[in-house]
Amino acid sequence: MWEALAGSGIGIGVALPLGYLIARSEIAAAALQPYVAASQAMPAVALAPLLALWIGYGLLPIAVLCALLVFFPIIVNTVLGLRSLDPDVMGAARVDGVGWWGMLWYIELPLALPSVLAGVRNGLTLSITGAVVGEFVMGGDGLGQLLSVQRQEADTIGLFSTLVMLGLLAAVLYGVVRLVERLVQRD
């Protein structure tokens, strides 16, 4: 769980500003979108050994792997949410003299938040997959490592129970973000 949460934090921290940059700059969009798309063509199982070689073993490389999986749905939904804002609302705010920071904080962020949170919700559930794949390849002491041991011992009941636990963890993360979405929508 720690790897998934750490990776989610890294992924969110990179995807949100990059998504804003892509949504607001045609030059950045042209330069970065092909690489964002290409990042999804590389399987996590293939990246994990490279991360182990470059970064080493432990929490950090697994968190980075999780961040790579979390990154894509968040950046895509952030760009979509920002690009779909009503231009009349944006224009009216500019006419009223709202500056860049005010536009971001009071107009763009609140209006794009449902889309951004949908990306975070999807990304967080993928972070569980990243943690499991990372532990398969790089070791660790979490549920991914437990699955490896159970597979080697042909422990069918253990495999099923661990898979159920992984599903429950993903569902809890999904539910927490849905709760945040509902709380934000009430305000």
UniProtKB/TrEMBL annotation:
Protein location: Cell membrane
GO biological-process terms attached to the record: transmembrane transport
Membrane-spanning intervals of the chain: 6-23, 35-56, 62-82, 103-120, 157-177
GO cellular component term of the entry, any: plasma membrane
Membrane-protein topology: Multi-pass membrane protein
Domain ABC transmembrane type-1: 1-181
Alphabetically ordered keywords of this record: Cell membrane, Membrane, Transmembrane, Transmembrane helix, Transport
InterPro entries, sorted: MetI-like, MetI-like_sf
PROSITE patterns: ABC_TM1
Gene3D superfamilies per record: MetI-like
Keyword Membrane: yes
Sequence similarity: Belongs to the binding-protein-dependent transport system permease family.
Protein name: ABC transporter permease subunit
